[in-house]
Amino acid sequence: MTRDQFAKFLRELRDAGDKGQDIDAIVKRHEHENVYFYNDGCLKKILASEKNLMLTTDLVNAALNLIGTDRVENPKLVHPFIPGELGYRSAEPDILLTNERAANLPRDRISIEVQHEGYALFRERLVLYIARLTNNMVKAGETPLLDNLNVVCFQFFNVFAESPNYRHTVQLKNQEQRVYFDKQTVTVIEVEKFLKNRAKFAGDNSRLAQWLRAIDTLNRGGDFSEFANDPVFKVLQNEVKLCNFSSRYLMTVDMSDIDEAIKRYDIELNNSKKIAKKMLEKEADISFIMETTGLPEKVIREL
Fold it and tell me: What is the secondary structure of 17-80 as a DSSP string?
């Protein structure tokens, strides 16, 4: 499902729950569809699962552009998703990994998050996130030997609009662009820039580009055949199926990242109904109204 479609589905589920209706039947009706991958609750269940660690590791290496001996190989989940439970909540992000390096190298700490809305305080919030993650590395009174911190942020708005790149590496640097502190890196991935400029990035065969295309195809319910022979994406294709998500879990999915999508959907629905009413007053054919507004026949007849 797209973000808006998933918002509509969750609204239907929530309304049915409020009315005491059978929410399992609603989930059953959509079980062969895909969830919206970038929703916080879906991302947590898929990427913070021990059984999908291979999936998460591949995405992390793709996002950080790590190859060869630099790759993350055996990460551990800090807050793993436990089947049957509703999730772990804390000040830290839901998806947090640690990765041990050689004895003389600092450990990696990797956080994954998604941000849909580019509100004014976004940068401040992200820096606060980094500060919290850094602070949690060292106990009071200990020598501050810090891990390598990588915060990976998938964003649906541009923070570097003038840049031709969709992947950005942000570090502390001086006026000569020399890195001052190399243990702290923010990797910003502008998802929407990549998707809106498909032709421009058509020749990009990086692993990250493959991931972004695969996720987008699944979200849209498109033809996945070009990814079907990839063992990682084959797992991904299965894990995004809605049948893997219980109605109990879906009822607890955080709505904060889709509130705006719900608002947009409600506005668009009301506008479509207004147009349909005017067309009905002009005695337009119902099939033509359906084609024009996208409304189902049942809704139009109720009008």
Answer: HHTT--HHHHHHHTTTSBP-TTSHHHHHHHHT-GGGHHHHHHHHHHHHT--GGGS--S-EESS-
